[in-house]
Specification:
single chain, elongated, mainly alpha, 192 residues, 65% helix
């Protein structure tokens, strides 16, 4: 049972007919409270005075057809939680599966990038790296490229983000090779 003021019930029902009918029929003021037992049919059980009960039950019967249960419940201060539709439940399950899948892809991508950056940093620190160290670093970079490309392909990340990450790896590789003297960039051709 919930106690509802006539003003709140009128606002919830979206109609002034309830309050006007109640006031004209039996000298009911908007401050009187009603007790509503069922929000679906708006059955009135008791009010503050017997005259209010009779008038309110007649008026509520007229207006109850237009009232939605959530609106009446909101007027009473109660929340009505709508039942989840089966398709919404299925969508929630699918979204959770995709979230876990995408998270593992993103984690793998960042791990591969970190490994590639660490390998390039070790190359830079070693001063004169061996051929095997350079090949190992290039292999890590190619694996990172592969993971990034697959993540873009299955829409885990946006195409532009994948391109930025690959460019970042390429810049780091190029800077490392230049600093070691293994690569010298050609000067840019002058345009006429």
């Amino acid at each position: 049972m919930a106690s509802v003021s006539i003003r709140a019930a009128t606002q919830a029902l979206g109609s002034l007919s309830l309050s006007s009918q109640l006031r004209t029929s039996s000298r009911v003021s908007l401050g009187d409270s009603l007790r509503v037992s069922s929000f679906r049919g708006c059955q009135l059980v008791a009010a503050s005075r017997p005259a209010v009960t009779a008038a309110a039950s007649r008026s509520l019967a007229v207006v109850a057809a237009a009232a939605s249960p959530p609106a009446v419940a909101a007027a009473a201060g109660k929340t009505v939680k709508p039942k989840k539709v089966d398709s919404a439940i299925k969508r929630a399950k699918q979204a959770e599966v995709r979230r876990v899948y995408n998270k593992s892809r993103r984690t793998e991508m960042s791990t591969r990038m970190k490994k590639a950056f660490l390998a390039l940093e070790e190359l830079r620190k070693s001063g004169s790296p061996s051929e095997e160290q350079v090949v190992a670093a290039e292999k890590l970079i190619s694996e990172a490229f592969s993971i990034i490309d697959r993540s873009v392909k299955v829409n885990v990340i946006h195409q532009n983000k994948g391109a930025r990450r690959k460019a970042r790896l390429s810049r780091a590789k190029r800077a490392t090779l230049i600093s070691l003297g293994l690569y010298t960039p050609e000067p840019a051709a002058a345009t006429a």
